[in-house]
Amino acid sequence: MQLKPNAYRLNETVKGVETMTRFALAVLALASGVYTYLGVRGILDGSATFVFFAAIIYSAAVSVAIYAFWSFMLRFVPLVTSGVQRMALFATMAIGCAMIMAMSSWLNAAALAGSAATEQHMAVTLQGYAEDLDQAHANALASQSLLPDVQRAAERFTGLANDERESGALTGTTGSGSVVQLLTQMGTQMNQLATTITGSREEVALLFDQGSARLATMRELVSTPGAIEPRADSFQAEAVQLSAVIAALQQTGVAASVKRASADLSAGFIAPVADGGSADLANRQDRVMETVRASVAAQSAALTAAADEILATPAVEQRRYVPLSSAEAVLRYWQDFIPSWAGAISIDLLPVVLVLVLMIVNDAMRRDSESLEEAENITAAEMLRAMALYRQMEAAGIDVASGKPLAAPAAPEPAEAPPDVETAAEDATVTPIDAAQRKRTDGPRPA
């Protein structure tokens, strides 16, 4: 198996996934456009035809913009090597991501979680209405706490009138005189006030039942599955009716009436003229009526203070249900739908990962190709010629690294020839021929 450089394999791999990268980018842009269409359709007003075409045009523009932007980033960012230029591209990419989130991601989130966010808004509003109903009911029932005090005062005045009539417990003389009439009058006023307080209890209970029924209907509208628009409309109608019930509950409080009645007990106290037959009896009746006046004033002050304490309780502020579109609801309750926001943003910004991957791969290819730039472009014929030249240089005694000839070994000194050999050579009649000095290009020897 022939081994290839790593840079070559990375380059081939990048080319192999280029089609897949374009396909994935197109699918992501299309998905973002679809969800953008759903989000835009929920916030536009007008005829059905206008909403349809407006949403289609906007979503198509978003898809094209996303595909073009990320195509540019995938093409240019991996090729830029300068640090300043790459930082400039990163800043441009950050601006583009912010624009994509502004024009598409929040609409994608509205399409993914719009109905749930609207239900969340209805549920929060329902909880507020439930608290208002409970507070208004509590304020209305607070007036009922005055009933025992009023009943005790009425029983006290009535009891004193009976005792004075039967045994003369106050003046010492039995019979129905001016003291009995005054005590009976005070007891009657207290009984009337107690009747007023008791009568408001039934009205408060009736209004609270009506408000509870409205709340139950609103809970069903929040939890019932189905299209959110008709449920939101019905919820708003029920909220209006519930607001009217809460306002009526606040009007049923009798604390103000009790305060006015208790103030009238003291301010409007009219003592009858003593009708005793003797001066002594008349004098005793006057003293008893002064005592009754002081008692009525004390009772009036106590009831007024109790009524003021009830009236000091803050009244329930009028609540109004404000319907929200799915996009507005997603923006208001974004903390409750973080997974939906993450998915909507990931659809638009997932190509950032592809850009970074291609940038890292291209950097790796550049590093690997720096040391083998010429070796990657050599052909087989050039490689064979280079190997043959290498062998020739070794055979010729040339250092391949430096290109200089190697030093030749020192030749041994020739030994002296014996005298008889030299004489024989001189006497030789045959002259030797040096064939080694003849070149191949020389012509044939002359005869």
Automatic annotation (TrEMBL):
The chain crosses the membrane at residues 20-38, 50-76, 88-107, 341-361. Residues 436-447 have a biased composition (Basic and acidic residues). The keyword Transmembrane applies. Keywords: Membrane, Transmembrane, Transmembrane helix. Residues 404-447 are annotated as: Disordered. It comes from the Bacteria. Residues 418-428 have a biased composition (Low complexity). This is DUF4407 domain-containing protein. It comes from Devosia oryziradicis. The lineage of its organism: Bacteria, Pseudomonadati, Pseudomonadota, Alphaproteobacteria, Hyphomicrobiales.
